[in-house]
Structure formats: C-alpha cells, structure tokens
Amino acid sequence: xxxxxxxxxELLFWWVASIxxxxxxxxxxxxxxxxxxxxxxxxxxxxxxxxxxxxxxxKAALSRFHDxxxxxxxxxxxxxxxxxxxxxxxxxxxxxxxxxxxxxEPTVFLQxxxxxxxxxxxx
Length: 123
Hints:
By secondary structure, the chain is mainly α. The protein has one domain. The chain contains 4 helices and no strands. Helix 1 (8-32) runs antiparallel to helix 2 (44-67).
C-alpha cells in the first residue's frame, strides 16, 4: 500500500507499474473472456479493470500533492484536459518537503538503494 506521501521517483514508479500492469491484465481478461481489446465500447471486465488502474494512478498523484504540501483538492486538476499533462509534469519535477508536514513524514522509498548507490554502506 502506498504511503500518504510519495516522492517523484515513487510517482513515476506507480504510474509506470499501473500502466504496464493494467495493460497486461486487460490482455489477460480479453483472452479469458474471448473478446478483443477495442477502444469503445469496452466489455465490462476490461472497463472495471481500467477504472481500478485509474484509481491507483490518482492515489499516487494525491500522495504526491501531499508530499509537496498541497491539499488533495489539487487532484481535480488531473481531470481537466491538457492541464492534467502540465500537472503531471509539475508533480514529476517539483521536490517534496524535506521535513514532516500535516500529511506525514517524508517518504523512504528505495532508501537502501539510494545509500548503496551513493557509496554509503548500511549497517
């Protein structure tokens, strides 16, 4: 489960994992239900799966807004065409707050790998 705050790297991880995982799952569902993957109208199983993937991606964006100190209302920007692309670029480039904020402590995702990559050895 995702934390209440995630960093830029975590946002990209969750979005890429959601897109790849959702695509694989839609292909599996299409194979099992003997349907094709088409743009409109989607069979119910594929539509539900894509809604679940969208919710996961929105949760990642919400956690990222919390990391930079913005309230969850910023998530509404993700529903405005073209503004959502700018919002995603904003979330992917602006660093989060280094200290605790009302949404929790800073994230520690991949902290061990960051220490190893910088030459510091964890005890």
